[in-house]
Amino acid sequence: MIEILNPTELARARESGALVAGILHTLRDRATAGTNLLDIDRWTREMIAAAGAQSCYVDYAPSFGRGPFGHYICTAVNDAVLHGMPYDYRLADGDLLTLDLAVSLDGIAADSAISFVVGGDRAADAGSGALIEVTERALAAGIAAAGPGARIGDLSHAIGTVLGGAGYPINTEFGGHGIGSTMHQDPHVANTGRPGRGYRLRPGLLLALEPWVMADTDELVTDADGWTLRSVTGCRTAHSEHTIAITDDGAEILTLPR
Ligand code: MF3
Ligand code: CO
Predict the structure, then answer these.
(1) How far apart (Å, rounded) are the C-alpha atoms in residues 25 and 32?
(2) Which residue, judged by its Cα, is nearest atom 12 of ligand 1?
(3) Using CB atoms within 10 A as the burial measure, which of 30, 90, 95, 200 is most buried?
């Protein structure tokens, strides 16, 4: 099902997006060397509760994971890229960390992910900086292609042109998605595609765009936890995601900190 939000719902989506962005911003500051992934999960639970919001993850049990996720945020370190389940691990300087968070506030969900190098020094590992930069650029290109009348394939093509143009293999098993009263909805937004194809965007549609890459492979392997997806070669990975709303004249990014 594809949902089109009315102005009241869109106003709620803005609050939900700002909450997600604010939590990610706070966690980014706190995620320094020595921080345990389980502390990040607990802080996330506390911030969601303090805002009177609901986790989209804790009870989530889709076909691609084993049972309910049971945690409040995805924490993916280095070769982990998607659905990273928090576990007892202390971050080290130079780790490439992805935080992926979706919450629902007043019945509307927002979803965003950021990747960064712990300790803040992208330049310390040129490979990590390049991975992060390409997902951020691909996300910006996807957003720039979004607006009323554009087709999903236009966004996929814009994202894939950046990822592929930088020489990265593109995996199409997981990509972006519609979002609204639930976190994962139609339409699917693959991270590569053909322009002019697919669903035509309309004002009021919410999309989560989420380019992700692995340095030298397009093949994923699932951890023993049944959730965490890693690169099969053990190479580093990055992921950037925003929730956007299609407006009358373009697209509005909802998951920016205020
Ligand atoms: N937020 C993720 C996405 O970007 C989905 C995570 S599902 C979880 O679509 F259960 F692993 F948290
Ligand atoms: Co998402």
Answers:
(1) 13
(2) 57
(3) 95
How many other β-carbons are positioned within 10 Å of the β-carbon of residue 5?
20
Q: Tell me whether residue 2 is in a domain.
A: no
**b/e for 62-89, b at 16 or more Cβ within 10 A?**
eeebeeebbbbbbbbbbbbbbbbbbeee
Answer for the pair 113, 241: CB distance below 8 angstroms, yes or no.
yes
Summarised one tens digit per residue, pLDDT across range 84-126 is: 999 999 999 999 999 999 999 999 999 999 999 999 866 567 6
Ligand 1 near 174 CB (within 6 A): no
Which ligand 1 atom is at minimum distance from the Cα of 84? 11
Give the amino acid at 20: V
Q: How far is the CA of 112 from the centre of ligand 2 (A)?
A: 7
Using a cut of 0.85, tell me whether the model's pTM lies above it: yes
List the residue whose alpha carbon is closest to atom 5 of ligand 1: 83
69 lines ligand 1 (CB under 6 A): yes
Q: Which domain covers residue 63, as residue numbers?
A: 7-253
Phi, psi (degrees; rounded to nearest 5) at 30: -85, -20
Count of CB atoms within 10 A of residue 184's CB?
Answer: 15
Q: In this structure, which ligand is nearest to the CA of 82?
A: 1
67 contact partners, CB below 8 Å, separation of at least 6: 61, 226
Residues forming a β-bridge with 80: 230
Domain count, the chain: 1
For the stretch 157-193, pLDDT in tens is: 999 999 999 999 999 999 999 999 999 999 999 999 9
Structural domain includes residue 258:
no
**Which of 63, 87, 183 for mutating ligand 1's site (highest number of atoms within 8 Å of CB)?**
183
